[in-house]
Amino acid sequence: MPDRQRATIAIRVVPRAGRDEIGGERAGRLLVRVTAPPSDGRANAAVCAAIAERLGVPRSRVEIVRGTGSRDKTLRVHGIAEDDPR
Predict the structure, then answer these.
(1) Residue 24 · residue 14 · CB < 8 Å
(2) Which DSSP helix (H) or strand (E) runs through 77?
(3) Residue 54: closest CA among 17, 29, 85
(4) Rounded to the nearest 5 degrees, what angle is found at the Cα of 56, between the Cα atoms of 54 and 60?
(5) Contact 44/64 with Cβ under 8 angstroms?
(6) Rounded to 5 degrees, what are φ and ψ at 53?
(7) What is the per-residue pLDDT across 2-19, written as a single tens digit (0 to 9) for each?
(8) Segment 53-76, tens digit of pLDDT
């Protein structure tokens, strides 16, 4: 049976931050700070890892569906419902 539970999260990424953290809001998007630089997809990988850790899902369940080259991104997280309060 296919995974029908999936949540979409709009985020704003701040690469090269002093520490990795999730919290706050900017322009209606969840603010995600990562220490990784934006080159070679390292910030994208760090964002996915941070979101997966926070939500308690495997890293493989988090994907960027829009904005891979932008600070504004849309993520899809498989295995949690859209209205899950995590």
Answers:
(1) no
(2) strand 72-78
(3) 85
(4) 100
(5) yes
(6) -65, -45
(7) 556 899 999 999 999 999
(8) 999 999 999 999 999 999 999 999
Alpha helices in the chain (DSSP H): 42-55
Read off the DSSP letter of residue 4: -
Spatial distance between the Cα atoms of 37 and 29, rounded to a whole number of angstroms = 20
Residues 6+ apart with CB under 8 A from 12: 26, 27, 29, 30, 31, 32, 71, 72, 73
Q: Given the structure tokens 């220490």, which residue do they identify?
A: 35
C-beta separation of 46 from 53 below 8 A:
no
Secondary structure (3-state) at 52:
helix
Closest CA to 35 of 25, 45, 23: 45
User: Residue 79 carries which side chain, given as an amino acid letter?
Assistant: G
